[in-house]
Amino acid sequence: MTAAILDWAVFAAQILLTAAMACAAFRILRGPRAQDRVLGMDTLYVNATMLILTFGIRTGSQFYFEAALIIAMLGFVSTAASAKFLMRGEVIE
C-alpha cells in the first residue's frame, strides 16, 4: 500500500512541477523587465531540478540524482552571474 501512495505522490508532484515550469516559462517570455526574466529562469531551473529528482525516485536510478546536482550547481552560478550583471553591468570586475 505504501508503494502505491508513493507512486501517486510522485505522479502528482510531476504534474504540479510541470505546471510550475509552465508558469515560470511564461514569466521568462512575458517579462516585462530583465529582473523578472532572471527570477523566472531561477524558478525554472529549481523546478527542473525537482522534476528530475522525481524521475529518479520513480525509476530508482542514481543517474538522475547526479544530473540534478549538476543542474543545481550550474543554475546557482548562472543566477548569481545574472544578478551581478544586472546590478553592476559587468560580471567580472
How would you characterize this protein structure?
With 93 residues, the protein is mostly helical. The protein is elongated and about 55 Å long. The mean pLDDT is 92. Helix 1 runs antiparallel to helix 2 (34-59) and helix 2 (34-59) packs antiparallel against helix 3. The protein contains three helices and no strands. It is found in: Cell membrane.
What's the arrangement of secondary structure elements?
Elements: H1 2-30, H2 34-59, H3 63-88
Explain briefly what this protein structure is:
The protein has 93 residues and is an all-alpha fold. The chain is built from three helices and no strands.
Characteristic key phrases:
93 residues, sodium:proton antiporter activity, K+/H+ antiporter subunit F, 3 helices, mainly alpha, cell membrane, Helix Hairpins, transmembrane
Low-confidence stretches: none
Principal-axis shape: elongated
CATH topology type: Helix Hairpins
Count structural domains.
1
Number of helices: 3
Largest sheet: none
State the CATH architecture: Orthogonal Bundle
State the distance separating the first and last CA atoms: 57 Å
- Helical fraction equals over 70%
